[in-house]
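Here is one chain, start to finish.
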Amino acid sequence: MLREPVVLYLFSGSGNTHAVAGRVVKTLLEEGIAAQLRPLERSDPGYTIPAGTVGLAFPVALFSTYPFVWEFAENLAPGRGKGIFMVDTLAGFSGGVVGPMKRVVSARGYHPVGAVEIRMPSNYARTEQEGPKDDRLRRRGLKKAAAFARNLVAGRTSWRSIPLLPELIKRLGRSPQGRAWAALRGKYPLSVDVEKCARCGLCAEVCPVSNITMEAFPRFGEGCLFCQRCVSLCPREAIGVKGRPFVPYRGSPRREMLELAGVSLDYYQY
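Its structure:
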């Protein structure tokens, strides 16, 4: 039985995880369980006292997840047996997150009650606009999220793990300055189309790792984790990879993503 309230901490780059986490919370509320969403990157992991049950929702990245998500989990307040569950979204394979995350939260004193991985449309290196296949993936993903929430309430979920290999995969991207992330930055460096850029500064506001600074135009540092938030939310679609015909993807309404990122809705005018 879930202890109330359920507080689901989420990070979402382009909106897939936001949509899935929102459906989990919506279903819990429909089942009579008090539940709420909170932005992971703007929350204090050391303060989970208000939560009866903790949830973590995040995208898969580098077959694992982002370093700041691991940091959040590793610094959760002592659980003292409190229930916890996780939801991740992915377009392909993870391998380095479900088991390692279970071990991390267990070490913090939490009781893992369930985990689910939900396939959603790819938000990375897309060369085609959204189409019927994306719609089908979203519908199936949201249906799976709702079913997971109902199973949580009924106590029919589990959080499995296998040793060794997932831990090795996790290490691949655990450090934001590691070789794997550096290789991605070298292969897919973000750039700004100055002809399109409105110089509104939204990209710098929404970056979860403060990697973007505003000068005459946005300048990208050496800490990009390719969450796609700046690409997805740019009102002029001015951010991309130079010389690559990639198109932005948005899995949740732009207004909701701005609210999640904690920025002024004045940016909505651009």
